[in-house]
Design brief:
two-stranded antiparallel ribbon; Rossmann fold; alpha/beta; single chain; 275 residues; 23% strand
Length: 275
């Protein structure tokens, strides 16, 4: 099982950010990680008041961590820039944020700023809705596999989350977006290699295929039909002629539209090209 050193959690005291913290603590207890809460200073909340709230949260959650530490840091600046810099400085194993919040995180973690944050972070980002069902503990993990060259980069993190939550079941979704035989065969080949890899790790899985023009729509429809608990996706970044990376349309749609937690794994090759 994956052992972690540190998990950073974005905090703005909203319900969604507290849900994110609760899930992060659960993951920390399964991986041995410390928790670092990050609050971005805003005009809407007094710094001293925020410190008092952060101290209380740390005090309340300390007994819930298995001997590990929970602390906080107050950052300044634009949310995505401040968090991205913190992630770069701290190099955490995982960043966890709430999908919606108030003040700083509501608008700034949605839309373009969320996309910028995902692009800037070298660490995986787990985005959690406030409606997350803690009773299910990530029982069904959706793993979409398409024809893109790097689609299987999602697999190692999927395996680690499945091992963190032993009752989980990996649901492979082979996504066919082309009628070209060679492309369809390539997707089936990718899926077969993933199945073999999961079998080697003795993890339970099922496989389905779907024909679609929109990867996000197909993935979300499938996730809703099986009542999924987590979707693992990847930064399918688009590189421009100026060597600048934009978040591809399917990643943007997944962040905006998914009612389920989404684990976004950085694309190692494209991330390296952007540095």
């Amino acid at each position: 099982m994956l052992m972690m050193s540190q998990i950073i959690v974005g905090i703005d005291f909203s319900t969604s950010s507290m849900t994110a913290l609760r899930l992060a603590v659960d993951i920390a207890n399964r991986t041995g990680a410390d928790i670092l809460m990050a609050w971005i200073e805003t005009k809407e909340k007094d710094r001293e008041e925020a410190q008092q709230e952060l101290n209380k949260i740390a005090s309340d959650y300390k007994p819930k961590l298995n001997g590990k530490n929970i602390s906080y840091i107050i950052c300044q600046g634009k949310v995505y820039q401040a968090i991205a810099k913190l992630v770069k400085d701290e190099n955490p194993d995982l960043l966890v944020i709430g999908a919606h919040g108030r003040s700083g995180f509501d608008e700034k973690y949605a839309g373009q700023n969320a996309f910028k944050l995902v692009i800037e972070c070298d660490s995986p980002v787990l985005i959690v809705r406030e409606t997350f069902n803690f009773d299910k503990h990530l029982e069904k993990i959706v793993l979409p596999i398409d024809s893109s060259r790097d689609t299987r980069q999602k697999v190692p993190w999927t395996i680690e989350f499945a091992k963190m939550f032993p009752q989980s079941h990996i649901c492979i979704l082979g996504i066919q977006t082309s009628n070209i035989k060679s492309v369809r065969n390539e997707v089936r080949g990718f899926v077969l290699s993933v199945e073999k890899f999961l079998a080697q790790h003795k993890l339970p899985f099922t496989t389905e295929f779907v024909d679609t023009e929109n990867i996000t729509t197909a993935t979300l429809d499938y996730a809703k039909n099986i009542n999924a608990d987590l979707i693992v996706t990847m930064v399918e970044q688009e590189k421009t002629i100026t060597n600048f990376l934009f978040l591809g349309p399917y990643s943007q749609q997944m962040i905006n539209l998914s009612p389920f937690p989404v684990l976004i794994v950085p694309n190692v090759q494209l991330h390296g090209a952007a540095k």
